[in-house]
Each structure stands twice: as structure tokens, then as C-alpha cells.
Amino acid sequence: MTMLSRLLRRLMALALLLAVPAGLYLGGVAPVRAYYESLVAKAGTLEDTLARYWKLGAERPQLAVALRHAEAREPDTALYLEGASDALAAARLQERLNTIVKDSGGSIDSVRVLESAPDGPYRRVSVELLIESRIDALRTILYRIETGKPSLFIKSVNITTITGIRLGRPMTEPADLDVRLEVYGFRKGVTS
């Protein structure tokens, strides 16, 4: 029995002797090492980001030259609504939209000019249209609004199918659609 207890005491002493360094490592060294490794990984990411920014910065002169050439080819005035006031710009916007819709095969049921608002150094001029068209005409209308000059933007689209009796047309023909669009453009200047 004394032999067993002596052996047990030695094993316990050895276990305590090994537990102290293991505890120090797990409690002190391992968290510091993990933190250091995370800092090394973050530094690598930051170095990659910095290299990408240096590369972009080196391209800046070429991009500035390309911008000047683009501005010389097309003055930015073609991008904005013309008009000395918001009301005149809204009238031009209505004319442009009327042309687009009619040329594309749709018809405008109503137009409502929305309140203009400042947007940075520009004025946002908006109108709401109620259009009747077929799906193929609508696709053309939306395309021409967003790709033409001046630059126009569609804020919202609400499409409903016109229901009811379709006199003189077979049911296989595409249905007419009621489309409510909010379209806006910008004009230069901050005066209304």
C-alpha cells in the first residue's frame, strides 16, 4: 500500500509539474500568439489594399486625360434638361417623354409634374406619367428613356393589365397595360 501511495504521489507531482507549463501556455502564450497571427493577416490585407490604391493613383493622370477627351467630344450640357426654370425644364421633359411614348407605339393618358427639389448643384425635375401600351412597346419606351439624351432616370414603375372586354381582338393578342412611371432628370442651377 505504501508503494502504491508513493507511486501515486510521484504521478501527481509529475502531473502538477506538467500542468503548470501547460496552463501558462494555454492561458498566456496561446492567446497572444493567436492575436499576433490575426494582426499579421490584417497587415497582409492592408498591404494588398494599399498596393491596389497605389495602382489606382498611378492611373489617375490617364483617367483625367480620358475624361477631358470625353468632355470635349460631348459637352455635359447634353446630359441635362434645358430650361431657365423648373417649370420650363418640366415642360421639356414632358415633350421628350411624349415623343418617346408616341414613337414607341404607346399613348399617354395623363402627366403630372411633381415638385422639383435641389440635388447637390442641380435641380431634380420629376414627372409622373400614366401610359397605355403593349409589353413590346413598353420595353422600347423604358429603353429609350434610360439611354437617350438628356439623361433621364426611372424612379418607379407600376404595371397593371387592362381588363375587360377586348372588342375586335382575339384573346391570343397581348393585353394592353396601364403603366405608371415616375421619371426624373436634372437641370443645372439651383434657382427654381
Low-confidence stretches: none
Total strands: 5
Instruction: Classify the beta-strand content into a percent band.
Output: 15-25%
Order of helices and strands: HHEEEHEE
CATH architecture assignment name of the largest domain? 2-Layer Sandwich
CATH fold assignment of the largest domain: Alpha-Beta Plaits
CATH C-level label of the largest domain: Alpha Beta
Coarse shape: elongated
Distance between the termini: 104 Å
Determine Rg (CA atoms, Å).
Answer: 35 Å
Instruction: Tell me the number of helical segments per DSSP (H or I, 4 or more residues long).
Output: 3
Q: Tell me about the largest β-sheet.
A: 5 strands, antiparallel
Secondary-structure class: alpha+beta
Describe the protein in words.
Helices cover 54% and strands 23% of the residues. Strand 2 and strand 3 (122-133) form a beta hairpin. Strands 1, 2, 3, 4 and 5 form a five-stranded antiparallel beta sheet that branches. The protein has three helices and five strands, in the order H-H-E-E-E-H-E-E. The longest helix has 72 residues, at 2-73. The chain is elongated. It is α+β, with helices and mostly antiparallel strands and 192 residues long. The protein has two domains: 1-73; 79-188, Alpha-Beta Plaits (2-Layer Sandwich). The chain starts with a helix and ends with a strand.
Set out the fold topology.
Elements: H1 2-73, H2 86-104, E1 107-113, E2 117-119, E3 122-133, H3 135-147, E4 152-161, E5 177-188
Antiparallel strand pairs: 1-3, 2-3, 3-5, 4-5
